[in-house]
Design goal:
Length: 337
């Protein structure tokens, strides 16, 4: 096939001094300068890579992390001592989908803190725990059991325990830094999440649902069951919680809920008390008949006779109005749990 310019050359009858076509000129140029173009191309690729790796990928990767949300299904604080406890967490990270489907994040330590407690403008972490390596694509289930936590900042933990005891709702922040892998590329990202959690609300709603008199029992003369509502997702091993029982401002005696493991929901726990002197036992019977309320405070908690300060402090500030209502479950039409 001949091009129109070839035809022009033939028509004019010229054989020599052929004008190069545009295509031929371009080819000739590249034959001579290929190396310069190759260098330019390589420089271009490197610039694109640098922009992508340092300029585009990190913010994109950060956005992938930022748009995830963490919901905490369950939290547990067990085996408390004065200097340590064990932490459990069952959470779900949602939103790691779309471009994050094939993303992998390295395991990393995350710091937990109260969202609004800052010291000199810095957040003050309560504790640190490891988040395992995770893959994107659907919900990421984070289940951690019995993570040993040593208490490094007692003041911060005190604040956390008090907030948990006293609040209806609380905001907890989680912060960390990890590496995200997107195929062959990896980049560092910040993990920064604030979670709204329910608090224990001063254990409001406690009810003594059962009480029995004990004779000749060294552990006490009045025992029973107390319903303690726990609206949180947190299970807390509290130890032997000491009780201070009074009625209309007058002390009635002391008691204990042994080995209290406060579970989420409304559950009953056994207690034993020393009501003294004896005529207070009669008064107690009157309170029960009238479905009247006692005032119950605490002198803290201990495990194997050793006091746990960070759990005791919030308990010691507690003062709850607790009715004696042995018909509680009958009235509610539910069975005790
Ligand atoms: C009380 O218990 C002790 C030991 O279990 C027994 O020896 C004693 O007889 C009991 N007293 C009464 C009044 O039941
Ligand atoms: C616990 O009891 C309170 C008060 O009766 C009620 O509002 C709440 O829904 C109950 N919670 C559960 C988990 O049953
Ligand atoms: C609370 O008081 C009772 C009675 O005085 C005592 O036996 C118990 O050890 C105290 N508990 C704590 C944790 O101080």
């Amino acid at each position: 096939m001949s091009t129109s310019s070839d035809r022009k050359v033939e028509e004019a009858g010229h054989i020599s001094h052929v004008q190069l076509t545009r295509g031929q000129r371009v080819k000739a140029h590249f034959r001579k300068w290929w190396w310069a173009h190759l260098i330019n191309f390589c420089v271009f690729v490197v610039v694109v890579m640098i922009v992508a790796v340092y300029g585009i990928i990190p913010p994109v990767a950060q956005k992938l992390i930022d748009k995830t949300t963490l919901s905490i299904n369950a939290f547990s604080i067990t085996s408390p001592t004065g200097t340590s406890f064990k932490l459990g967490m069952d959470g779900t990270i949602k939103g790691a989908t779309g471009p994050a489907d094939h993303a992998v994040i390295d395991s990393f330590p995350v710091k937990l803190f109260l969202d609004d407690v800052r010291v000199n403008g810095d957040i003050r972490p309560i504790l640190e725990f490891p988040v395992p390596k995770a893959h994107g694509g659907g919900d990421i289930h984070v289940l951690q059991n019995d993570i040993p936590i040593s208490i490094t900042d007692e003041g911060a933990l005190d604040q956390y325990a008090s907030r948990l005891m006293d609040s209806v709702e609380m905001r907890v922040g989680l912060r960390g830094r990890t590496t995200i892998h997107l195929g062959a590329i990896h980049t560092d990202v910040n993990y920064n999440e604030v979670v709204q959690l329910k608090g224990l609300n001063k254990l409001t709603g406690m009810v003594i649902t059962k009480y029995t008199l004990h004779t000749n029992n060294s552990e006490g003369n009045v025992g029973g069951d107390v319903l303690i509502p726990n609206p949180t997702v947190t299970t807390i091993e509290m130890g032997d919680v000491g009780l201070k029982i009074s009625y209309k401002g007058a002390a009635m005696g002391t008691g204990v809920i042994k080995n209290l493991i406060l579970k989420p929901g409304n559950h009953t726990y056994g207690f034993m008390s020393h009501i003294t002197p004896d005529d207070n036992i009669l008064k107690l019977a009157t309170v029960a008949i009238q479905k009247d309320s006692l005032t119950i405070g605490s002198n803290g908690t201990s495990i194997n006779g050793v006091k746990i300060p960070w759990l005791s402090k919030p308990l010691e500030t507690m003062e709850s109005t607790v009715p004696i209502n042995t018909d509680y479950f009958k009235e509610k039409g539910i069975s005790p749990s």
